[in-house]
């Protein structure tokens, strides 16, 4: 049993069309699945990833049209990192974000690697991180079906930044229950890694006693998922988490992967998700994300589900 790294991050948008335009046309990620929130089918669930939708590359969004402003604070997944090949790629992105007037920070050294912080149009806190000196979990394959040169393309998810009022219990859950290893403390952040380590398997914990609890809205993160091998291993993790005294969802079939959810003591929602079966389960790899995909248990409701959604043309996703 071993957590292999970051599986996906799920965030909130108030406008699926604008969100789709930004993450595909500006950031050059591939929409690998256009589906719905299985717990509330009235909202889109969009999955952006690398060329093949590999686990560890998915940044997903629930569309909540009435989502309000996010008031930043603790109990939060406060920054999501996106990996690029090297430091040179960061220079490309600095110029591209400037071209499209995207709010950004200067390139800087952060936790011994070059990073470029920026915000999407809804204030989603993002950071491009260079794999120049990286090791460990391999990156994904950048999507080539866009205007971004492949050598500069986004290759997956990088370190996840948590902001908490008390770092001790969160660290204990990650290390003593989920098996993360402490790498050290840099820039007042506790750095943990799982599996093969590196950018694709790190969680950074920042303790802030000067902030109040975050009020989530558009541009906030809903949960982070960690990779497990398969359903058999996920069942073992369920037993471990249950014995540790954490209420959990039990195994949930998301069709594209199996999941288990629980909240750690600072109320951040963690998910464990299997690597498979993957996004090509119900769509051809060459045509991912072009139509509304529904898992078999929702297919009988397709007509009513489609009627409740604002049409979203994703034909360019191929």
TrEMBL record:
Q: Which GO terms describe its molecular function?
A: dioxygenase activity
Keyword field contains Oxidoreductase: yes
| Keywords assigned | Dioxygenase, Oxidoreductase
Residues in domain VOC?
5-131, 156-275
Organism domain of life: Bacteria
The UniProt record lists the keyword Oxidoreductase = yes
- Do you know which Pfam families this protein is assigned to? Glyoxalase (PF00903)
Hey, what's the signal peptide range on this chain? Answer: none
Q: What is this protein called?
A: Ring-cleaving dioxygenase
